[in-house]
Design goal:
2 copies of one chain form a homodimer. Chain A contains 6 helices and 21 strands. Chain A is mainly beta.
Chain lengths: ~400, ~400
């Protein structure tokens, strides 16, 4: 979205001048993580546990590495929040069943309410939601955007109707449609070219096979901060594709021309502008990180149960290795807890005896197809898709 | 615990007279569910979502049938609460790592802190926690105790150290020990015979194979209301065996003589007193219930996705059938969501076209060993172990 900056900044200044700071959520400027903990939670995320979050901005709130615990599911109290533009008015979640979503590019185009969707099917999936820029804070070139470390990711339970069930009800996808293009219900500020700020994303149409339209998150009605009343959930895909407040799902011959698709969320060399020819942020790559030790508290000499999480949007994770010496040597970790399916993350643990000294503790995941999580990040303009294990290491002093 | 009533009531009166209502949690009298919704949440459970709970008493709080949702996990905000006697002072959760638990009946008896336990291993399990008396409210003979309907049960993620790992560290279980006998950290009121009110339960010692000592619930530090800082978790066993504030785990030759074991939680004919010769409330039986329609809201004509949950402490659930005509005819439901392991509950769904009219909707689970959830409850004095599908039916009028 960097190409929209001038307009967005102008809009933000206008709002701030009018004192409408709440409405500016999602448009506020970025700031380094080091300053973040002073910031209050924005109103739409006030239910979060502030002690376990890092507030980068009113639209960028990260889970602390130490907060993930060992239960496998990231609770609503700590799941990260990221909005591209301001969320709609909170009143849209007052009566979730009345929310309307339009389907197009199917045999019988139609508008359906959530109440209608609830008659059509039911599915629940455990899925890692991760911001494309998670790990951006480790890049060296000051990539613009939230300076996330590890916590713009979480594994949650999403329930709703399978997109496929709805599509079947509407007679199937029309011939020649190659993308599923979905649109968020955010309000476009007056005077701004919609294409420049609208949240509309296209993914390969086959993604509908596993996608759901979700109204429930970890057992609660989907909160506004996470896209309620209705969010498109595409297991294995980066967060931006999981359209919040989804108001339209269309099967299209081409990708949307909206900036967020055409030039935004494109992986390209540092200094280059975004363009449709560059790779789009679709399926997540293979990644893991250690959640304990987190680097936040002191570690005493003795046995440490080093644990963390591993996941992939592609070939499933088959093993995880842990290093305590910055990658010189590796040992096989053991999975623990329940396997929650191929789109969930898997928890791993390795008991290690730590004597007094300094350690650099990290993990690397290995996928069924033999892919190994790489050591280094792939340098790119916007700091996307960071899965290098070196930057994700935790430096620990054991006393 | 009915035999302890005189002492408990006396204690409660004394406390209430002194204005120490908070400390009386767990000792308050029972009252019918119909009056329950007026009661406030007790302080130690104030974090619960009152709108989704039924407060029977300060120590008996049930999840509404309509509150379970479709995510599979019961969040901390709505998980039921049941204490036999007052919880210890909330300060015990201030520094969970300092909590001490004593191990006995092992080669090297020892006291260990939670910090020690955290070095010894790590496990996480998805497990149904269910009160022995869940469903008591359906019995006809006014069995004493909370008049639970379906919601003294929930499926949650518990993390901690495997008991077996601790036992191995302590040299193994001593010869001849046939029970694992564990003791809660509740404070016994002065002047009361400890045996009459203490929470100490024995289970077959082999239960240690899957048991954990848990300090985490659904990703949060285990709250006091659920047994924090440390709770014994025995997958597949009724709630009472999952000792809260556990301060001692002993392998013993005999079952404890505490009333809660010797005469309490014993299944016997109506009118009989409890005795050690009667079956103890250990492994949970095969059970399911419908969570939607819940009978609370109106149901419109059209397709309803009838859904619910099924579980067993014994042979795993292999199928669920649903009836909309009070058990005259049955149709096979489909499982949905993730299988979270043999101690979790499984979600099922059946889409049914409902025309205007009256329905009696219920479910019955079938286990791998061929067991079928029965139609009727087994009548028993204390209203334990109710898994009859007829009483669990929801009456629905479709308009």
């Amino acid at each position: 979205m960097e190409s929209t900056k001038p307009e967005v900044d102008q809009y933000r200044r206008r709002l701030l001048a009018a004192g409408a700071t709440g409405a500016a959520a999602g448009l506020a400027g970025w700031s380094p993580a080091s300053l973040a903990q002073q910031k209050p939670l924005p109103p739409f995320a006030s239910f979060k546990d502030a002690n376990r979050m890092i507030v980068h901005s009113a639209s960028g709130i990260e889970t602390k590495r130490s907060a993930f615990g060992t239960s496998g599911i990231t609770s609503n109290d700590i799941l990260f929040v990221r909005n591209n533009i301001a969320a709609p008015n909170a009143s849209i979640t007052d009566n979730p069943d009345a929310w309307v979503v339009e389907f197009d590019g199917v045999t019988s185009s139609r508008k359906l309410t959530v109440a209608d969707l609830k008659q059509m099917g039911l599915a629940s999936v455990s899925m890692v939601l991760q911001c494309s820029g998670n790990g951006r804070g480790f890049f060296g070139h000051k990539a613009s955007g939230s300076q996330w470390k590890v916590g713009a990711a979480g594994n949650a339970l999403w329930s709703g109707v399978p997109v496929k069930a709805v599509v079947q009800e509407l007679g199937g996808v029309r011939e020649g449609m190659r993308y599923m293009t979905s649109t968020g219900g955010e309000v476009i500020p007056q005077g701004v070219d919609p294409k420049k700020v609208m949240v509309e994303r296209s993914v390969p149409w086959t993604a509908m096979e596993t996608a759901i339209l979700a109204w429930e998150l970890n057992g609660d009605a989907l909160p506004l901060a996470h896209g309620g009343p209705l969010r498109l959930i595409i297991p294995g895909y980066y967060g931006v594709n999981n359209i919040k407040y989804v108001k339209r799902v269309a099967f299209t011959a081409e990708q949307t021309g909206a900036n967020i698709q055409a030039s935004g969320y494109r992986v390209r060399p540092i200094g280059q502008k975004g363009a449709p020819t560059q790779p789009s942020m679709w399926e997540m790559n293979l990644k893991s990180f250690v959640t304990s030790p987190s680097g936040e508290g002191a570690v005493k000499a003795g046995t440490a149960q080093i644990h963390g999480v591993a996941w992939s949007g592609g070939s499933p994770v088959s093993a995880v290795e842990v290093s305590i010496d910055g990658g010189k040597t590796w040992r096989a970790a053991r999975f623990f807890g329940q396997d929650m399916g191929r789109y969930a993350w898997r928890q791993f643990v390795l008991p290690v005896r730590l004597a007094a000294g300094s350690y650099e503790i990290t993990s690397r995941a290995i996928a069924e197809d033999g892919t190994v999580q790489p050591e280094l990040r792939t340098e790119n303009e916007r700091g996307y898709a960071h899965n290098g294990w070196r930057d994700h290491a935790v430096k620990v002093t054991v006393a």
